[in-house]
Amino acid sequence: MARSGRWPVKGWPEPRIAVKKQAIAILSSGLIVPFLRMFCDDAAKLIKSTIGDSLNAKLIGTLYAGGVEKVGMDRYLEKAHKLGRKLAT
Asked: Which residue, of 37, 49, 76, 89, is most buried by count of CB atoms within 10 Å of its CB?
C-alpha cells in the first residue's frame, strides 16, 4: 500500500541499501482503549507497509499502547522493553 509513488507517501524515495533491517512499531493512543483497537487499526497497516517498502525493514513486533490518558504508561513499559530486547538481539 505505501510503495514509492503511491498514496499516501507519493514521492517517497526507494531504499538505497539492499541490506534487510529489523524494526518494531509502537503505536500509542491517549483515548482509544485496547479492546477498541480493532475498529481503529488502519494506521498499523499503513505503518507496517511503510516500514517494509520505504525503510527496507522487516517488522518483528508491534505494541499498541491504548488508553494511555486513563490507565497510564506503566502497564506497557515491560512489553516495550521486551520488544527493544528482541530488536537488539
From this structure: 76
**Where does residue 35 rank: exposed (0-12), middle (13-18), buried (19+ CB within 10 A)?**
exposed
Read off the DSSP letter of residue 55: S
For 52: left if phi > 0, alpha if psi spans -120 to 50, otherwise beta; the answer is alpha
Q: What mean pLDDT is predicted for residues 19-47?
A: 79
pTM for the full predicted model: 0.69
Phi then psi for 22, rounded to 5 degrees?
Answer: -120, 150
Percent of the chain with pLDDT over 90: 18
User: Tell me, what's the pLDDT at 77?
Assistant: 92
Q: Which residues is 28 bridged to in the sheet? A: 65
